[in-house]
């Protein structure tokens, strides 16, 4: 995923977003996915209109740039527009109320079509963000990566950078001897007030504060970043420092040139589809007689009856999910005469 929290003022939020359309990169093979209502293989007007109401937030950025005051670049000689980042318009992010969203087959087909079309368009888009705050996520419980985290942090905090970045590292590193936060402030006097620390509560309440995510680890670290950012997800750039590297495309040895290029020239975004999983809790019935049919309650005639179950928690899943049935998953009661 080649992409791009305690904030006390709006000045730390990004103020510019530049989108560049590469005319030559949009030519790909004909899509093999055909919409249920489409008579031709090309995107129908109905699907283009439905993007506005799609759950994919980026659709609004690509199809209605005037709504967010995005500037488009047409060709190499086009005029570059300057704009506020979409994250800056979110204000104080408030997680939405948990509500189960059971989709029909038609809705799933439409969503798959929209995601496919969006992914195709993102392949020809280079996003130039005015990055000011960088979120660094280090592989948990890997003490050998602490020194590398310090190395990247010091480089980003250096006065030699194009602009003063605000760097967020995990809270546990604040008192870590190897990270040596006090030493960082002594080595980089200009870093005062720009080295901050994030925790789970900060990420949950203010995810829009971060402009860019840098992960140091393997695929598990990228999945951990997806779990941390359940709704708003900044662009993620991953350096390969773990055992698996299917999602980590960048070599850490060249981290300086990689980050400079990303911040200066922009990044091409690769869209990743996530599943939204809802945990349903059963509502007790005072006059219940006999066993209840779970399938009937969830997808049968009683599926629209909110008295049987209620949504408890929702999770955005990038790659996989493990369902734990408890310490005794195979235990059951058997009546004997």
From TrEMBL:
GO terms for molecular function: NAD+ kinase activity. It comes from the Eukaryota. Coiled coil: none annotated. GO terms for biological process: NADP+ biosynthetic process. Keywords: Kinase, Transferase. PANTHER family: KINASE, PUTATIVE (AFU_ORTHOLOGUE AFUA_5G12870)-RELATED, NAD KINASE. Belongs to the NAD kinase family. This is NAD+ kinase. The lineage of its organism: Eukaryota, Fungi, Dikarya, Ascomycota, Pezizomycotina.
């Amino acid at each position: 995923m080649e992409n791009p929290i305690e904030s006390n003022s709006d000045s730390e939020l990004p103020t510019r977003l530049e989108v560049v359309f590469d005319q030559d990169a949009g030519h790909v093979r004909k899509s093999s996915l055909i919409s249920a209502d489409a008579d031709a293989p090309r995107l129908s007007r109905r699907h283009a209109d439905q993007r506005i109401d799609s759950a994919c937030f980026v659709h609004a950025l690509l199809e209605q740039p005037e709504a967010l005051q995005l500037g488009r670049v047409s060709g190499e000689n086009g005029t570059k527009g300057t704009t506020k980042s979409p994250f800056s318009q979110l204000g104080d992010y408030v997680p939405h109320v948990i509500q189960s969203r059971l989709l029909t087959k038609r809705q799933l087909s439409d969503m798959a079509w929209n995601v496919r079309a969006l992914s195709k368009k993102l392949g020809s888009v280079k996003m130039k963000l005015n990055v000011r705050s960088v979120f660094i996520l280090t592989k948990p419980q890997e003490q050998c990566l602490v020194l590398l985290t310090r190395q990247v942090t010091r480089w980003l905090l250096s006065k030699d950078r194009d602009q003063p970045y605000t760097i967020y590292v995990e809270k546990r590193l604040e008192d870590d001897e190897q990270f040596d936060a006090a030493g960082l402030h002594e080595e980089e006097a200009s870093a005062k007030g720009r080295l901050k620390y994030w925790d789970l509560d900060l990420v949950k309440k203010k995810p829009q504060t971060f402009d860019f995510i840098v992960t140091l680890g393997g695929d598990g670290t990228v999945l951990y970043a997806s779990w941390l950012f359940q709704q708003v997800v900044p662009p993620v750039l991953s350096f390969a420092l773990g055992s698996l590297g299917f999602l980590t495309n960048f070599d850490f040895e060249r981290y300086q040139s990689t980050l400079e290029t990303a911040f200066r020239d922009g990044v091409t975004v690769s869209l990743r589809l996530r599943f939204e999983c809802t945990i349903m809790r059963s509502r007790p019935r005072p006059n219940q007689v006999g066993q209840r049919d779970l399938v009937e309650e969830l997808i049968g005639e009683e599926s629209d009856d909110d008295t049987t179950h209620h949504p408890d928690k929702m999770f955005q899943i990038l790659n996989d999910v493990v369902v734990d049935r408890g310490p005794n998953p195979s235990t059951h009661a058997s009546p004997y005469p």
